[in-house]
Amino acid sequence: MNSGQWTGKVGFILASAGAAIGLGAIWKMPYVTGQSGGGAFFLIFVLLTLLIGLPMLLSEYIIGRNTQKEAVTAYKILSPDKPVWSWIGKLGVIGCFLLLSFYSVVGGWIFVYSGASLTGSIIDPNVNPGDFFNYVIGTPWVTLVGLALFTLVNVIIISLGVQNGIEKANKFMMPLLFILFIILVVRALTLEGAAEGLKFFLWPDFSNTTGESILYALGQSFFALAVGFSCLVTYSSYLKKDVSLPQSAGSVVILNIFVSLLAGLAIFPVVFTFGMEPAEGPGLLFIVLPAAFSQLGFGEVFLAMFLILFLFATLTSSFSMYEIIVAALIEKLKISRVKLTAILGVIVFIASIPSALTYSVLSDVSIFGRNIFDTTDFFVSNMILPIGNLLIAIFIIHVMKKELVRDELLQGSAMGIGYYKLYRTLMTYVVPVVIVIVLAFSLMSY
């Protein structure tokens, strides 16, 4: 078998789920839920993930498997007389590179936290969690070492290829992630304040729901599935023709929602038990949770487990970002995967240095009123990503032949023509409108 193919459906689903389950599901989802009122936001997120995220995920799968080519070439093949559409794939490559330039920094923080948690140096009576976080992000050598370690792991896994690297890593990391999560959830649900935390997270109280929180849910619904960068176009190009795309996409969406649910179940009971603030923001995982775990029996163990699963989730997402770049360049440059991945790792590390030093030596640098890290994050998440989603939606409906879309969607699937009609209706009338609303709101909020 070609090493550029998944060994089977399970490997593909776990890799796709790994691409989707990352900072969005475990870091961003809990604090945005906390800031947006809890259960009502989570319910809206779930509904929109099914209505918006799932059709977009299927679209990337259809394009990739039909052509059996990486993202840039895939769009070129499907629109031979209009080569401009290949820029969707190029935009994905550029977006993933820019995303890696700050995503890897956060990955480095998690690496440092994971190592520190194993030595018990985070949960220490003499250590203030806020001070420790400021030390990690504000000390150049600590941030750069974490960044280097995170980059190195990515380079090693990607250089091993699709089967021996990405698939094997995901088959190990993803099941272990779920096991660790379930252990943490069980522990969280035995706490005294668990009922209050569960009510906040699961009971939909729409009295505090605003137009802004709905728009946040709209954005999170497709951001959380890693769609828009064409990473999953590349991943699905390694997929066999007899695998059901609707079933695979449905499995990935369910796993993503399940992880978002587990994150809430693991975090909010702890937060409410110890009187913490659920709307803490990005510091929820790095400051609030260490403080809460320090008050638990065997808190060091549970915190270490949480940080390790957080690290796994971050790595499995970054694999997909590296792969779309490597796949796009390997044929063009005609060099080995190992050499290309090593070169890419060095370039990503260098490009990440400004974001890594944002909170230390470059703290005074401001771009359009934001620091380097936040500016890069905003540009990628609020501009490139929705534009990529919008272009893919237009391409799948107005450029790619209807017969190809229908046949690819239904091949290997028990779904009938009605499913195709529903998919096409959503992609024609619903998804583009939602994306435009999200993009417009993002630009106005800037």
UniProtKB/TrEMBL annotation:
Pfam family, one: SNF
Cellular compartment(s): Membrane
Keyword Nucleotide-binding: no
Record key words, sorted: Membrane, Transmembrane, Transmembrane helix, Transport
Source domain of life: Bacteria
InterPro entries membership: Na/ntran_symport (IPR000175), SNS_sf (IPR037272), YocR/YhdH-like (IPR047218)
Bilayer topology term: Multi-pass membrane protein
Name of the protein described by the UniProt record: NSS family neurotransmitter:Na+ symporter
